[in-house]
Every structure is written in structure tokens, then in C-alpha cells.
Write a structure and sequence with these properties.
381 residues, alpha+beta, six-stranded mixed beta sheet, four-stranded antiparallel beta sheet, elongated
């Protein structure tokens, strides 16, 4: 019965996976990277904005061939400057600082090509505080984040702008390390919650936690304690592993190509889901969590490395971001475990949640793996 059920379920899951992927791509979050340097009354800025986001907002691909050339980008320089600077406002000690574009470049980040807009502002005299209003892309992408690096008076402040935190004030003479820490902790929580590949990997490892492997088949665990400790081992192993590589990558000790990392993450999701359907690893899933957690750490690090923080700020951001990831991860586990344990003996859990859910995850992960390894898209972004 199980052998006949699996191909049919997998085919149905594959169809559903395409629908899920379409939704995921349509709501794919984005980041921009804003760097401001205040010297006296002068502000120098650089804003890295993803070409894929600008294509949605103002259109860059003039010939519609799917590739944005330097010529097409250059022809849109004035439109990019007008669009972006209309969505950024600076006030120094409550007085407006008019922004003016000074140059255009292009650069590559871990997730693709970015337009680089350089600009300046004259605030008159050296301010004690700056207020920044950021509203880029919020009208059509409420998940967009603007990552800020602000340098003034020998100090570096960092934060993330979001739709619900679009206006923020910065004291230039009294930089708060606690505020920086909490800002990146929030960013870590957000990153794990919107990182669907990370979530699916964790969920795939957690699905069998309330079951035991008996002669190659999953059976309901008799007691809660073994299930809890199984989850504890899996989550702890994943946490330790990704914390190691997150730290090494963010500090520049180790660097891996983005395509390799993203492909390996997709492969980890596929293998974890496949193990649920045709179990090979039972109680040793914590080892799998650790090994693949090392790869996921490089994925977590991309946000911090792309921001280009100086060493002293990077360490603070690293700790805060990593703590946020753990808080977000524990929230997922806390919501999942009681639900799974209560339903572990039901056909609903074993067939629909465990087998059906794992089949869907496997289908999604295989599509991701093909796209990331071969650098193509099945569905339009």
C-alpha cells in the first residue's frame, strides 16, 4: 500500500509545489543597502538597490529579453535617482537636508546585481541627531528591508528599515549599542521566518520527532519526553553548526560562492524530506542537522556580509542577528511540537502531515535545487 501511495502522492505534491513556489516568488523579500557618512554638515551616501526590484518598480529591461545590460541601466540612471531619492528623506536637527545624486555604478551582491546610487546632502552645520525616513518599495513590497550603515563622529550605527519602522532617529553623539543589538536581533527573527528554505529544513527534521523508527517504518512515540529530547538534539545541533559558519563567514574567515551555498541548502531540504518518506536515518537526525547546519550558516551570513560592516559593528550585529535567528527558530519549534505530539497517532498526521507534507517539501526542494544549480527559473519572478 505504501509503495503504491508514494508515487501518486508525490505527483500531487509536485503540482502543489509549483503553486507554492509561485506564491513564494511573488512575495520574495528584498533588501537594499544604504551607507551614510556624516562629516560636519555634509552627508555622503551610497545606496545599493537590487536590479530585480527596480525592474518591478520602474522597468529597466527595455527590449524585454530578460537580461538588463549596462546600456539599459545607464539609460535609466536619472529615473533611478528620481525614484529612489523621492523615497528617502533626511533631517538634521529637525531641518531638511536636500539630497542630490552624484554618481551611478553597478555591483554584485550575494543574491544578484545591484544598481549603486551615490548621493550627497548639505545639512549646513554638524548635527547632533539625524532623522531618516525610508519608504523604498513599501508601496508594493511590505517585506522589503533597508539595511543602514551610518558613520559619524568615529562611530558606526546600524539598523534595518521596514514598513513598520520607516522613520528612525539617530543620536550622532550618543550612539546606543543596545539599540543596534536589538535591531539586528529583530532582523534575525525576521530572516528565519521569511527564509522558507531554512524553515522547511527544520520542519522536515522535526516531523519524525514524535515518531519512532520500527523495522523501517515510522510509529507513534509512546511518551513525550523522548520526543522532546529528540527535538532538543536536532535544534541544538543545527544551532551550534550554523552559528559556527555564520560567524566565520560574517567575519570573512571563510567565503563560499552564493550559488554553491544556495544549491546545498536546497539539497539539504530535499534529503531531509526524502528521509521521512524512505527512512534511512532515525535517531541520528541530529548529525544530519549539524552537517547541513554548517551550510545554512553561510546562507544566514549573506545579510551581514553584504552590509559591509566594520569589525567593531560586525561583532555586535553578529551576536544580535544570531540570537534573533534562535528566537525565531524556537518560536517555530514551540508551535510545532505540541501540535505534532497530540496528533502523532492519527492517520491525519502520519499520512497527510508526515508523508504528504514531506512529499510536498521534497518536490519544492528539487525544483529549488535545479534552479539554483543550473541558474534558471521555472517560474517568472
Amino acid at each position: 500500500m505504501k509503495a503504491r501511495w508514494f508515487p501518486q502522492a508525490f505527483a500531487q505534491a509536485l503540482a502543489l509545489a509549483f503553486a507554492l513556489l509561485g506564491a513564494a516568488y511573488a512575495h520574495k523579500p528584498s533588501d537594499s543597502y544604504l551607507a551614510l557618512t556624516v562629516q560636519g554638515g555634509q552627508v555622503a551616501g551610497q545606496w545599493d538597490i537590487a536590479l530585480r526590484d527596480l525592474e518591478v518598480a520602474i522597468g529597466l529591461d527595455a527590449d524585454g529579453d530578460g537580461d538588463i545590460t549596462w546600456g539599459e541601466l545607464k539609460a535609466k540612471h536619472s529615473d533611478i535617482a528620481s525614484y529612489a531619492l523621492a523615497r528617502l528623506a533626511l533631517q538634521a536637527d529637525a531641518k531638511p537636508c536636500p539630497l542630490k545624486a552624484t554618481g551611478h555604478l553597478v555591483d554584485d551582491h550575494s543574491d544578484g546585481a545591484y544598481a549603486v546610487l551615490r548621493f550627497g546632502a548639505d545639512c549646513g552645520s554638524a548635527p547632533d541627531a539625524i532623522e531618516i525616513r525610508y519608504s523604498l518599495f513599501f508601496d508594493f513590497d511590505t517585506q522589503h528591508k533597508g539595511l543602514l550603515r551610518l558613520e559619524a563622529n568615529g562611530q558606526t550605527q546600524t539598523t534595518a528599515f521596514a514598513a513598520d519602522r520607516a522613520t528612525q532617529r539617530f543620536e550622532l553623539r550618543r550612539a546606543s549599542r543596545l539599540e543596534q543589538f536589538l535591531s539586528f536581533a529583530r532582523e534575525g527573527v525576521w530572516h528565519i521566518w521569511i527564509g522558507i528554505d531554512h524553515i522547511l529544513f527544520i520542519v522536515s527534521l522535526l516531523l519524525p520527532a514524535v515518531l519512532i523508527l520500527v523495522r523501517g517504518q515510522w510509529r507513534a512515540a509512546p511518551r513525550f519526553a523522548p520526543a522532546f529530547w529528540d527535538v532538543f538534539r536536532v535544534v541544538t545541533s543545527f544551532t551550534v553548526a550554523h552559528s559556527i559558519t555564520l560567524s566565520l563567514a560574517a567575519l570573512g574567515v571563510i567565503s563560499l560562492p552564493s550559488r554553491l551555498v544556495e544549491s546545498a541548502i536546497a539539497a539539504s531540504v530535499a534529503l531531509a524530506a526524502a528521509n521521512n518518506l524512505r527512512p534511512v536515518v532515525g535517531s541520528g537526525r541530529w548529525i544530519v542537522a549539524f552537517l547541513f547546519g554548517l551550510i545554512h550558516g553561510f546562507g544566514f551570513a549573506s545579510v551581514l556580509t553584504d552590509l559591509g560592516l566594520p569589525k567593531e559593528s560586525l561583532l555586535l550585529a553578529l551576536v544580535g542577528f544570531n540570537l534573533g535567528v534562535e528566537v525565531g527558530q524556537l518560536a517555530i519549534v514551540s508551535a510545532f511540537l505540541p501540535f505534532a505530539f497530540a496528533l502523532r497517532s492519527t492517520l491525519f498526521y502520519r499520512k497527510l502531515v508526515m508523508s504528504g507534507g514531506s512529499a510536498i517539501v521534497l518536490a519544492v526542494a528539487l525544483v529549488w535545487l535545479a534552479e539554483r544549480a543550473l541558474n534558471f527559473k521555472i517560474l517568472p519572478v
